[in-house]
Structure formats: structure tokens, C-alpha cells
Amino acid sequence: MLDALHAIEARLPELLRDEAGWTGLYVDYHPPVVERLWRQVDGVRVYLHRILPCAPDDALFHPHPWPSAMRLIEGTYEMAIGYGSGTEAPPRAALLMLTAGSEYEMTDPNSWHYVRPVSAPTMSLMVSGPPWDRPTIAVGKTLDPLGDEQRARLFDFFRQRYPAR
Asked: Which of 17, 40, 59, 92 is the S-S candidate for 80 at Cβ 3.0 to 4.6 Å?
């Protein structure tokens, strides 16, 4: 998945030109709140994230329903890691502090994690592959679209970090 992340990074300036091709969601069913833009590109889903800080014990510990890779572009977040099948949270096996420039992948269906921005919002790029056949945690609410101001902030940030050549 890191190869897919790097390939998308090379194409991101081009992808950012087409604002209409991106769907925005305000992900607020559980802390941390995430402002998200996403789009499909050649079998890979691409996500632009602004993740808001939350209290130390509030971050959602969850499995991803698909393989994924992430790059933290701005800020610092705490990430806990665990491993287990099903929807009941496994024990936390590791706790990391990741800073801007960090990248990682989650390529096993039973990998769990949470991310928690430490003191300020973080900005990150994520790619994901096709969904796995594994139970996931139910959202329990309909997510709202991202507001115009939030969309503009994400596009502005990512265009500055991935300028057109």
C-alpha cells in the first residue's frame, strides 16, 4: 500500500485541479472528528484528512475495513496499535507518537489502531484498497457533507503541499 500512496502523491497536483471529483464528509460519529475529502482513482480510494484533537481516552480504536497507507503531513498524533478479529477491541500492543513526514500501512484485516492529534489538528493523506470481508464497527449516524469553508481549507492546504508543476 505504501507504493500506492507514493504513486498517488505523484498524481495529487493533477487530482486537486478537479474539485468536483472529490466528495466531502464531516466524520463526527466518534472522536476524533475528521474533515474528509475523498475520491476514487484507478481502484484506489484517496482521502485528504484534517483530524481534530480529542481527549486522551476518547479516540476511536478501530479496525480498517480495507488495506490502507497513510502519510502524516502536518502535526503530531498519538497512535495505538492492536490486533484482533471481530468487533471487540483487542488489547493495545503499542503506542507511537508520529510527526509530520511519517508514513505507515495497515495491510492485515485484523489490525486495529486509533489516531489522536496531540494539541492541534493534523493533516494527512490516506489511500485504501478494496474492502475486506470482515466485521466492522457500525457508524450509527448519517454523516453530513463537508461545508464549503472546510472543503476550501483542505484544497488550499494540499495544493500548497503538492503544488502543480
From this structure: 92
Q: Given pLDDT bands bounded at 50, 70 and 90, which one contains residue 127?
A: very high
Running DSSP on this structure, what letter comes out for residue 20? G
Of the pLDDT bands very low, low, confident and very high (cuts 50, 70, 90), residue 98 is very high
Second-level CATH architecture of 2-161: Sandwich (2.60)
The size of the chain, in residues, is 165
At 74, is the secondary structure helix, strand, or coil?
strand
Q: Taking the domains of the chain in order of start, what are their residue ranges? A: 2-161
Q: What is the mean pLDDT of the chain?
A: 95
Instruction: Give the number of C-alpha atoms closer than 13 A to the C-alpha of residue 78, restricted to the C-beta side.
Output: 17
d(CA 84, CA 7): 30
Cβ atoms of 113 and 87 closer than 8 Å:
no
Q: What is the DSSP letter of 29?
A: S
More confident residue, 28 or 139: 28
User: Of all residues in the chain, what percent are helix, strand and coil, respectively (each to 5)?
Assistant: 20, 40, 40
- Distance from first CA to last CA of the chain, Å, rounded? 25
Q: Which three cell numbers stand for residue 24?
A: 466531502
